[in-house]
Structures
1.
Amino acid sequence: MSLEKSIRSIGPRLNLETGLIDMTHGSGGKNSYQLVKEIFSDVFGSAHLMDKNNYLKAPVGDLVMTTDSFVVSPLFFPGGDIGSLSMHGTINDLAMCGAQPLYLTISFIIEEGFPLKDLLRISKSLKKTQEDTGIKIQSGDTKVVERGKGDGVFITTTGVGILPPSRQPLSLQAIKPKDVILVNGPLGDHGIAILAHRAHLDFETQIQSDSAALHTLTEQMLTKCSGLRYLQDPTRGGLSGCLNEISYATGLSIELDSKKIPLRTDVRAACELLGIDPLVLANEGKLVAICSADCAEDLLREMKTHSLGQNAAIIGTVVESVESQTPRVTLRTPYGGQKILNWLSGDQLPRIC
Amino acid sequence: MSLEKSIRSIGPRLNLETGLIDMTHGSGGKNSYQLVKEIFSDVFGSAHLMDKNNYLKAPVGDLVMTTDSFVVSPLFFPGGDIGSLSMHGTINDLAMCGAQPLYLTISFIIEEGFPLKDLLRISKSLKKTQEDTGIKIQSGDTKVVERGKGDGVFITTTGVGILPPSRQPLSLQAIKPKDVILVNGPLGDHGIAILAHRAHLDFETQIQSDSAALHTLTEQMLTKCSGLRYLQDPTRGGLSGCLNEISYATGLSIELDSKKIPLRTDVRAACELLGIDPLVLANEGKLVAICSADCAEDLLREMKTHSLGQNAAIIGTVVESVESQTPRVTLRTPYGGQKILNWLSGDQLPRIC
């Protein structure tokens, strides 16, 4: 039976212009079925929910598995939406483990009253992200909660990737003093894009989220640089949170040079205006790489050949902690001073991803 | 550094008696770190969040991957809680594909103000379920949303399993007329347990959810019965929803014998009192098996040897649909009549799982 015919035979079609999610769409009954058929069939691909279409070719190498929930607000923002973000985020989590992403699953928790046309917009964004990244969503789930018990849509994506047999797992334990720290481009774009959109701020140019899938960049880096020790994406908590956690976990300190940290001029201006440190702002298409000193320049050159690494930079080094001090992250300021980059305990910008 | 020392060095310990979740626990900063350390370290097992501890031994055979969000209300109910339920649910989804479950991930969306002691209770339940089922949670995520934008805790679990190389994938296409339909025990327990708890109904005996992991039962069934065509767990939508969807997708009809469908006496009584059809109630430890007629008795005997199949029963058969009719599920009543089991379009009992 064709999909078109299946849908027609099950009841009147959904009104994708003005229709709203109601509790029956989460019942597991006919209406749930219809919702998935009409909104998500392009993403899930299966003609029938109960089709066992989740048998996947087993890869050669160790598996890597990561999961992430997305509660970003607003759902649509300059440079992306919760759909593309949720795929990029999980693809990047796998990539940061040195893995080649293979398969994704997606699960929706939808609030009663959510417009079907917005759900369709998210579904189309997922489809486009599948095409752009080459990573397919294999299976999914939808649940509905009452009005006031959710907030539009929450998405959880989970990914499975493969660590090629010749590749060593990345590990915090590999990080050593004198290692060099790189980023693949300017920081804080996602945080400012969301914040500006929430606050209805008009900057001269619209700042776009940097949301992007980094798996082809990391693959290139891992293939070309044997001295790469560790990768991490500075999402929630920003560069500062990411490096503080690494410092805390390894017992090593980190010294950054503020002049070398790439920032877009408009992001820097927005941060000054708003009194926000760009280094605590979330990024969704950036990575921190830590590599041995002897291969840092090669790695930088390699990164710059990739479209997502054109503005890559060496920003600092790993150092032994001073005996009497707790490990810390310091920033050399443009005026030659040094300040400690603290690990944020509060939340400057909730629901950024 | 020992976990104990890590936690102390990061700040004052959480108050697990009276403390509440706040937005900083979702910041990705120090407080997120502390939350995971103190509440979930037993479940996640890693000393540091950024430790790449999600490298998994690659199995031999095709992979199966499923995901499911749990928004059950209440979070704690007779016979289980959202923690055990979320693990059982995803283990069962894998088992219904004929797969051996290997790895799980878990993601929490927590509402601001949620009591830490309840989160700890869920964490302990997850730990116990890991021990009981032998399936480990490999990685996880936590997000926090503002008060009134969630409802306590939502959990999404995703699982990866393996289809042993000698085993054929299960498929709707394998189902044929004259095939026999079995269930592994009495239906509707989960639905009534949740409903009674929500409505503060006192029955003579407390009805417990049937929430359970079915992977050892399915493994036994798949190993012993080569005529097994298809497995499905009748969760949301109950037996009626499950069989209607199978009928709709295959174009075949299904005839059930109401006398043979196992129901607990107290569940039957509760359903009569409440005017609810037990066949639309959700189950969380039940499966529907469809097998060739010649091996049905053997399969039934095999199921009865397993603790989760002691009350298994043959309940009906698959038949050709009458040419002029749409495929349908019918129930032979105790008085010899026949009624059509409709596919629920509404939702009798929202947020049952």
2.
Amino acid sequence: MNGAESLVATLVRGGVEVCFANPGTSEMHFVAALDRVPGMRCVLGLFEGVVTGAADGYARMADKPAATLLHLGPGLSNGSANIHNARRALSSMINIVGDHATYHRACDAPLTSDIEGLARPVSHWVKTSPSAKTVAQDGADAIAVARRPPGQIATLILPADTAWEEADGLGKVPEVKPPAPVSDAAIDEAARILRSGEPTVLLMTGQALRDPALFQAGRIAAACSARLVAQTSNGRWERGRGRVNPEHLPYPVDEALRSLAEVSHVILVGAKSPVAFFAYPGKPSQLISEDCQVHQLARADEDITGALTELANLLKAPPQPVIEQRTEAPGLGRGDFGVENLSRTIATLLPEQAIVVDEALTSGRMMLGLTRGSAPHDWLQICGGAIGIGMPLAAGAAVACPDRRVVGLQADGSAMYTVQGLWTQARENLNVTTVVFANRSYQCLHTELAAVRAGTPGTLALDMLNLDRPDLDWVQLAAGMGVPGMAVDDMDAFNGVFADALTHRGPFLIQVNI
Amino acid sequence: MNGAESLVATLVRGGVEVCFANPGTSEMHFVAALDRVPGMRCVLGLFEGVVTGAADGYARMADKPAATLLHLGPGLSNGSANIHNARRALSSMINIVGDHATYHRACDAPLTSDIEGLARPVSHWVKTSPSAKTVAQDGADAIAVARRPPGQIATLILPADTAWEEADGLGKVPEVKPPAPVSDAAIDEAARILRSGEPTVLLMTGQALRDPALFQAGRIAAACSARLVAQTSNGRWERGRGRVNPEHLPYPVDEALRSLAEVSHVILVGAKSPVAFFAYPGKPSQLISEDCQVHQLARADEDITGALTELANLLKAPPQPVIEQRTEAPGLGRGDFGVENLSRTIATLLPEQAIVVDEALTSGRMMLGLTRGSAPHDWLQICGGAIGIGMPLAAGAAVACPDRRVVGLQADGSAMYTVQGLWTQARENLNVTTVVFANRSYQCLHTELAAVRAGTPGTLALDMLNLDRPDLDWVQLAAGMGVPGMAVDDMDAFNGVFADALTHRGPFLIQVNI
């Protein structure tokens, strides 16, 4: 058994069953080991941003890490933006980055670079395995780090000779530890605030947005006047009909400020104190008013559901939350071909247990409101602001949940970043229905340009914001990667094509020319 | 004048005339400044790997840096692989990376990351500008660093408030310093070796592969028995009919070892002592034999042409080099539709002053030999081994040289990495003719898998090397981004289509199904 085989076997024993990969020469022994060690599904991405974005999508839905297989420093760099997003989504990931053989590094061959240096800013743990004897245990340690609540990024650098030399058996796979309980003091303080009757928000993310925690938060809301608010960006949010559906803290800073203006207390439930996504001249970075007090019920790595349950019981909350009785979706959009009507149709037709991957940015902002009454679904957002996550995230979610429909809501500018994700969707025949909102611009930047008060944009500036010369033809792009698609220009067509696409086996892309 | 305007004006004053950009919110003031400060051409890329690869291509052909405009840590990461390639190509580049406003960084907003940490492994110089007053001088310093011979990577991080606050005038733009002369001792030593008559190689890269230096190296070769050998990968190599055409050190390690086996002395002319690209079990990392001595005539940052001239004179070399009298290209390929015949046609039809961007990898290995007699041309290679450079590099070279034809020789696997480069070629209507060698696999990895002795690949391993499920349709991909194209399956068709494409205004893509 060589080092690569000992590593693959350790990963499989540790419950890592999927590897998203874009390998090169230095990873060839790892690749060869896949056929010798049973139990690992390997999914190829034609660009590393697809690989890491898919691993994130998988982890969000499987609640455990996938491995990625990346080729030296540049391979890691190419995947780095979506590792950043995964870190912000509190996702779990194990990156295996091949490197030159240990003795070859000093040669400074063309592909040599400071891989550890590149890895550190996006990883909770980085290690270069020194020998084939240590690779397996290093892999086991990486699993332990990655599975530490709420989910962490572990990056293991694998010099080629540590893969091909003789190993020393498997690594000792750690037990998965449950999240630590919250202190009584934190629960008591939250109870005191909530009993005070002062305007209070429970700001929630992570496990707080899963059904069991939402249920308890709903009991709390039923016992007092507190508002339940989900953070602006969340890794995974269980929503829809029959569930407790918190409000959503809006992205635009003025709206967010208005939403929190009258709040005296923010109780953090997995979240951090809310800040603006960007700074804007003359606007605050903090989204709460100066006299608002911030309290922490539970950190993201603590037992959020347990804390909410204890808090609800302490407040003598009713056994059931008040569930919004909105049993109907808004109905199909008719008439004007625009974001609002498209959102209505999507909200109405969203299938039971759909997984919505939301990288629609400006086009998606009214979607959250309209889908509160949709069939129960999961909503996955871009959490680190690094656009180019949607198509890979959708692929990874579909690998984790082959029996559920994935619906990708995709801005066109963002989709171009990791367009190669469509090929992986086709190769794995994943049930992903993608709607590309083709507004032919970085629409958000038009808004942002005004928000940062950069003045009226001139011709050159507008050229940097518009994608309309030439127009992107998404149906041809998708077809080029084996994904069928259709472009639509009116609501009647969209209503029909979207309904059909939701039952299509394998990926399908709809370009909406808004 | 705000910080952004002071920076753009300083860049323009310092001869930086092109900015390849993919901006976001934090770069909006820089973008707005483009319309207020004349003299900067701004070229949009739909992914940062396009932006940095194009800046590299521009620098190689313009012999001066372009700026890039990137959006925080993830934007830099996305461009990092091609910055790595540029660094290995001895290219010059000024990266402007927007960051959050200085006071906003402590908020740890979603896009916050350690940008300096991400920048250091790929940059010679990294600085975060502390205020709007310093931005202009920091920009001037970045120019100085980037233009230091042979070309360096300068990364300037621009917090948003340093762009929008009031500036203090322009930065003092440095004079461009010529490369330092080589010591007499180095020239004397080289002369001594060459006079000894022992088997000697001049290993050349950088400025050594430009016409004036080649001319002098050719004089030296005419005066003694030394072989002229170009390094395996070179940023820019002036070649073809009427020029001194060195041999090429092959990529495959066994071939390289054979090429250098009988050599007693290697004299480095801008190059480093030759090493294998990867390590392979049982094979050496160093490509020279143990008793071969390595001497340095000139470092990459020294006056290579001057050193070769002095050396030639010291050796009393004839005033003219011996120029290989191969006035004809090999003739159009006929018959079998494969790499050899395609290479013949390309070598034969290559137009005068063409710029060849070579990311053909396995498909391109016989191209260098066949083009020795082609019309004079420049050959640009991938120097850092980070695939995904070709289409961006071609775009940047075409921006630098609008009157010359760019011919992209492109492997399909590599092309997918930065396929968005086609859109920039279309938008700027660049005269780029791309030939995609569609072998539907990471063909090089099949070879590498054997070379690293990873055993016979099984089904899963082969799946990671083959791109044939589904096949990529390059004509549709190109059309989706506004680039016309055609797929060909026989030599007659290719001979006609390639000839036509070379006179086509704007980009054109030919998919060859080999």
